[in-house]
Amino acid sequence: MPGSLSQTGAVLIFIAVLLAYTLQTELAQYLQQTAGYKKPYFLFYLTHSGYLLIAPLHLVSLRLLSIPIEANLRTLVAILEVHFAPPEPKTPTTPIPLPPTHRPSYSRSLSRASLPPSADEAPDRPGPGRRRTSMKRLLHSAKPKGSSAGWIARLISTVLLLTFLIAFPALSWYAAVPLTSMTDITAIYNVFAFWAYLLAIKFLGEEPSKSKLISVLVAVSGVMVIAYGDSFSSQPSRDPKDEEKASSRLFGNLLALFGSVAYASYEVWYKLHVALPDPEGGDEEAIEDEDEAEEEGEALLPSPETTGDESPYPPPLRRIASHTLSISTPTTTPLSNPSTTSFLLYSNLITALIGFFTFILFWIPIPILHYYGWEEFVAPSRATWLPILATVMCGVIFNAGFMLLLSLWGPVIASVGNLCTLVLVALADTFVPTAPGLSTASLLGSGLIVASFAGLIIGAAKAPSEKVVEEGWDEEGDDRGRATKHVEEETV
């Protein structure tokens, strides 16, 4: 992303996420433990349905900032068409051998293909200064536009799955609130950073290392200390009420642990299938794909020396190539390059759609829960409506900001930063009279988690510098090899 968003803007979003999460946890604790409104499912339904507010609030902010809304909406639709384009059907036999036409990456289809021609890159005058055009991109842009039902159906199915994936950890979080302390919930829940790392190794291709594995083990040890430390350090109680309280706390901690793993799965799946690649960042996969596509374009497109009617294409492919060249350099209303506004609008649209599907689908269990007595529906009183509305708004801010950080930083780094909520919630609990005090086990377990995160951050900071040094040595060796070969050729 541009520097303004990846640095200053991302830090501001991160601070807003921390404050919103801390306030949301304290309000949820007040509603269920102090005000006695123990309706976890109904609170979940209101909070996640509140994501609907993100889209209109975003449009209002664009209007207040005098940012053109219609142009950004057109760009957003173009992004959605490319990102959620269904894979093209594979035909067993094709009369003309065409290059692969899989769905191109976001940066290749929108960023370069939509650039207007500059003075040095005239479309009708091929030469050394002209940018080579990817054949994959040309064939994709030449594809006739049919019904938009394909990408819309894929978008809807993706958001529906996201809605359920984010519902499971949220429900476990709300169900654990009346059973255990918020400090324990926050500590256990934030270990999803490590589950996200383990899943990222499997599905995102991250390289495992011993230091990261040790960090994971230390963090899990911290979770075990928080969940079970008090039972080993204290004398067994014979009071039935204390035993019942300890049993409920254990069950609440297990619910939080389940939510942690479920949320890590949601993060990795979102990053893998939904999140946009950084338009101005180093998306290595997209860059490699672009280089391969440019090589194919160089091999398949006519060279500058081709004259007359000679063409390396068969007649049908020749017509496609001539048609796509005119599309790749539009002169009327070309798509703008991916911008910060488009990136934010895309992320908030996905979050708002999650709120929409939550609103129209997740009300169904409410009468079922009421009928069986699992959670009787009771309308909130006037005293509880204000905390509920504040909880909804905090949930909107937290999830909108976290979706942005998830796209910018990835699941592991975003989860690492989210651990700071542990300290804030622990400090906030000291000012709540009804909240349980910090136990030795909670402090020790939290210290282990923080230490493991510190080791993970230090390892992540060292990795880029080591990679740069290795690449420098490789480039130096390549330069020496080329120089030696050049001297040998001159000698011969």
Automatic annotation (TrEMBL):
Coiled coil feature spans: none
Record has ATP-binding as a keyword: no
Location of the region described as Disordered in the Swiss-Prot/TrEMBL record: 90-134, 280-315, 468-492
Transmembrane segments: 40-65, 151-175, 187-205, 212-229, 249-266, 343-364, 384-405, 412-432, 438-458
Keywords assigned by UniProt, alphabetized: Membrane, Transmembrane, Transmembrane helix
Organism: Microbotryum saponariae
InterPro entries named in the record: EmrE-like, Solute_c_fam_35_mem_F3/F4
Biased composition (Low complexity): 103-119
Lineage, uppermost ranks: Eukaryota, Fungi, Dikarya, Basidiomycota, Pucciniomycotina
Compositionally skewed regions (Acidic residues) per UniProt: 280-298
This protein's name: BZ3500_MvSof-1268-A1-R1_Chr2-3g05314 protein
Biased composition (Basic and acidic residues): 479-492
Biased composition (Pro residues): 90-102
